[in-house]
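Notes, p. 3: input format for complexes.
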Amino acid sequence: MGVTKSRIKVKKTENSRLHEVDALNINFGKHYSDHMLIAYYENGQWNPPEIMPFHNLYFSPATTFLHYGQAIFEGVKAYKDPQGNPLIFRPYDNLKRMNRSAVRMAMPEVPEEIFIEGMRHLIELDRDWIPTSEDTSLYIRPFMLAIDEFIGVRPAEKFMFIIITSPAGPYYNKPVSIYVQDKYVRAFPGGIGFTKAAGNYGMSMYPTQEIKKMGYDQILWTDGFEHKYVQEIGTMNVFFVIGDTVVTPDASNDLILEGVTRDSVITLLREKGVKVEIRPLSIDEIEAAHKAGQLKEAFGTGTAASIAPIYALTYHDDKMMLPPIEKWEIANWLKKELADIRYGHKEDVHGWNLKV
Ligand code: COI
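Output follows (356 residues plus 2-OXO-4-methylpentanoic acid):
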């Protein structure tokens, strides 16, 4: 279809809301930038995307995604380099993952011309919305909805691809306390655990509400057969430093989300010469390492959260406290290294930053 930046129709807002943002106090998901992108899919093809002022959407109450959750999303971030140029971190990887989710959810794949060029154009237009204080960025949320006006259960034929953006501070503004879940299940082999489908998040609300009442921040999901092998935190992938080795669950069997931050962390650690093992990891092994004083660090990784240190991990009655976070060598190094690359303070040798 060849949608180039110049072919994207743009209607600019006449009333910017940028002044509503307190640049020194930015939370996650509170403000949405002036513009959004929308592309429609119908009759087997994508129509050219349009950029327009951010606005509410209007749907028939019979619309597919409202009932059956045929909906997927992504999370990407844009930063500003020291010269003030916007940089988007690894958006091609998000495009690939979005399209893996799309195939599994019987939705059309989004072409690069819409996802990447649309995103570049949108970020260029709303570049003043990219915050520059420490730990801030512009969170980019691409998503796709099935919009047939039909209440029968069948894959839809009409879809909407949308991108909205939101100035964001850290998703977790302090270290997190994690509860190891062995009652509810997030993902099974052959399921949709590897996708960013809306249902993966919807189903986590009730179990998360339960553990929040108990004083924990998030759930560490375990496998559905034995509740033994750890999977992910739901909003994040998870890493454990056991002795001198970094261990993270493998992404086979369609169980966990192949995070872009996860991949960046694995790459950076291996380049630094740190031993990284990607393999099944049981809660028994984590407990044994903790007892032996070998559980040195534990952290979540994700686009929204970046690197989120875990200060305590609770499994049944065993509350495993991690060593003081200031002393951690790996997570603290990773956090800085990733930030240096994303904010353009360090040479981007991997070609991860896309200039808009
Ligand atoms: C992300 O890290 O982008 C996520 O998708 C996590 C969450 C905010 C749903």
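Residues 50 and 142 are 14 Å apart (CA to CA).
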